[in-house]
Request: fold
Amino acid sequence: MRHGDRVKKLGRKKEHRRALLRNMCRSLFIFEKIRTTMPKAKEARRMAEHIIEFAKKNDLAAKRAIFRYIPDHKLVKIICEEIGPNFANRQGGYTRIYRLGPRLGDGAEMAILELVEQNEPAVIDTRRKLIERRVLHEEKSKEKSKKAKSEKEKAPKAKKPKKEAKAKPEKKEKKKPEKKIARKKAKKEKKAKKRVRARKKKIKKKRR
Reply:
């Protein structure tokens, strides 16, 4: 019997269940809307509203408490500075759940979990790029390179004076020493004599 046990196990052990809910809250604060099953949405809503309560305080202790659930410094900063101030006038009820009906595969009841106060799609898109480690300074560097190219094209090109061709010094022919020439000739003559002797031996063998 489950007296006083309010934890829904979701078919997982404690570590797996905790990691699942943290990842769901992380994606909820990035996209501000997620689609999941009804039991998961209810459990993720509890954690998300707990995090938003800390975000409304926006002090160092609150940031450290949020970091326990979402270990990402960039996202913690966004939650405290962008999402938290949107709920300054609310005392609870920071999220809502829409029922979508059963799933076709296994009949599980589906739902959409979203924040009540949402930002514009452009803000969410830039947040997604920043959190997913898609470096934004690469886009800035591309824009700078385009501007530099356009400025170069607009600026008149100054003609560079042609450099006078320097006269190349003539290469001095190296004289081979006479001794080396004589040695090479002697080697060639010896090789030629050996070939003649070898031919004569072959001819004698054939005659026999």
Q: What stands out?
A: The chain is about 55% helix and 10% strand. Residues 14-136 form a domain with the 50s Ribosomal Protein L17; Chain: A, fold (CATH 3.90.1030.10). Helices lie at 14-31, 38-57, 60-69, 73-83, 121-131, 137-154, 178-207. Residues 178-207 form the longest helix (30 residues).
